[in-house]
Amino acid sequence: MTKLKVMTFALPGVLAAGAVGAAVAFSAWWWVPAVPMVFLVALAVRDVSQREHSVLRNYPVLGHFRFALEALRPELQQYFIERNFDGRPFDRDIRSIVYERAKGTDAEEPFGTERDLYRAGAEYLVPSMAPRPVAETPPRVRIGGPDCGRPYDMALLNVSAMSFGSLSAQAVTALNTGALRGGFAHDTGEGGLSEHHLGPGGDLVWEIGTGYFGCRTPEGRFDERQFAEKAAHEQVKCLSLKLSQGAKPGIGGVLPGAKVNAEIAAVRGVPEGVTVVSPPYHTAFSTPRGLVRFLARMRELADGKPVGFKLCVGSRREFLAVCKAMLDEGTTPDFVIVDGAEGGTGAAPLEFADQVGLPLTEGLVTVHNSLVGTGLRDRVRIGVSGKVATGSDLVKRLAQGADYANAARPMMFALGCIQAQRCHTNTCPVGVATQDPRRAAALDVADKAARVQRYQEATVKSALQIMAAMGVDEPRQLHPGLLLHRVDPHTVRSGAELYEWLSPGELLDGAPRTWAEDWTAADPDRFVG
């Protein structure tokens, strides 16, 4: 029990006992302070024993102040909306939407939109005059090209990459349990494959980063034997090679030594108590051709399971170089995950988070067009991640060329994350992003797993309802023309107009002028921006 918990019980308990004793022995007036003290002790007992709110389990009594402030938030937001203090209305609180869906209390809102529909940058999905019935069964996406022997049917929305070590064992277990119950996939993040991922039995996408955690030699290089052994687990459905992350592309990752306990050290294959640094680059390859060959080798070692890679897109020329390498080698990955620069992380330099990497829309359009233009799009599925939280977010990305999406931050909200921004300090107040066993114990796995399942189910249902309203029966019928963008107060353009969309094989038949320079300069044997 934490010192704060002891103080929460001890201080009111001592005061209550003293006040009650004084009331019995001296004067009935002592009941005035005694009753509130007894009430606080009873409230503290209830807070610690309940399972719904992790923050109350870690901060009995005091945690209620947080809920009181949260209850005031809509009124405070409306106050500022009406006075327009910052020059624009607030956007809808995405975290509140996730919380409601996770708790199963998602409901309609009265009085219409709070968005400014006329500001530059506003987006609108196009409804149809002939809506379709809402699909009863959510569609799935077949992952696996011609070189894949064991394809996997991916859900439209899945758990994005978050490592054990960054997240607590309870958080990882809850995510995987929710994925098992809801029939969607759980990306492990680059921190290795632990019993907390494997134990519940949910489908896994095992992510391999630059540190090769869980399949590394003592020198930190890729170990084929360890990789093959762990890739053989039945729960591992896909293998993902991380090139870069949206929030901090090109600098690797850091896990503070305070979080590297004996279990995490064993899972990752690193020394206990020592800060773990993932290098910014891979040692297994150094060229686009080397990347494509390494992916093919991973699929061979994984006995034909789907293999792909994740990146935050930078240079279009470099991605075209990878496409040229695919053509030359006659093999492709089974999927590519595009991570937008708006994606989150527990720790990243502010300037990287704000200034480096393409936003999700530009990255997705680049990857989709590159694969279409080289005639490879039918072989490679595209996943996206980076602030995909609602059904409308999902539909927008599908319209822009994605096949499915992953969510990280919303899944953390479903676990009870309150954005205390203490992820790097090991003092997460709700037990999500900590390796402190006392704090992590406050997270009730059964309750949070149910919330994760409900959030994913409600969000996909929302996406299907929106597609039906747009006159669409299945995701592949979505296209950029169904997503409108306000360019300025007087101009609206569709996604089909704002971006250039290549036709299948167009780069091979003679690249258009806008792509010709990058296509000519792309070299399958060099990463050159």
Q: What are the key terms here?
A:
single chain, 529 residues, alpha/beta, TIM Barrel, eight-stranded parallel beta sheet, three-stranded antiparallel beta sheet, 20 helices, 15 strands
Please specify the SSE layout and strand pairing.
Blueprint: H1 3-25, H2 31-49, H3 54-58, H4 63-83, H5 94-103, E1 123-125, E2 141-143, E3 152-154, E4 157-159, H6 169-182, E5 186-187, H7 195-198, E6 204-208, H8 224-231, E7 236-242, E8 253-255, H9 262-268, E9 276-278, H10 288-301, E10 307-311, H11 316-329, E11 335-339, H12 350-355, H13 360-373, E12 381-385, H14 391-399, E13 404-407, H15 409-415, H16 437-440, H17 445-469, E14 483-488, E15 491-494, H18 495-498, H19 506-510, H20 513-521
Parallel strand pairs: 4-13, 5-6, 6-7, 7-10, 10-11, 11-12, 12-13
Antiparallel strand pairs: 1-14, 2-3, 8-9, 14-15
Protein described:
This protein has 529 residues and is an alpha/beta fold. It folds into two domains: 3-58; 141-520, Aldolase class I (TIM Barrel, Alpha-Beta Barrel), CATH 3.20.20. Helices cover 42% and strands 12% of the residues. It has 20 helices and 15 strands. The protein has helices at residues 3-25, 31-49, 54-58, 63-83, 94-103, 169-182, 195-198, 224-231, 262-268, 288-301, 316-329, 350-355, 360-373, 391-399, 409-415, 437-440, 445-469, 495-498, 506-510, 513-521, and strands spanning 123-125, 141-143, 152-154, 157-159, 186-187, 204-208, 236-242, 253-255, 276-278, 307-311, 335-339, 381-385, 404-407, 483-488, 491-494. Strands 4-13-12-11-10-7-6-5 form an eight-stranded parallel sheet. A three-stranded antiparallel sheet has the order 1-14-15. Helix 14 (391-399) links the parallel strand 12 and strand 13 (404-407). Helix 6 (169-182) packs across helix 17 (445-469), helix 10 crosses helix 11 (316-329) and helix 14 (391-399) crosses helix 17. It is globular, with a radius of gyration of 25 Å.
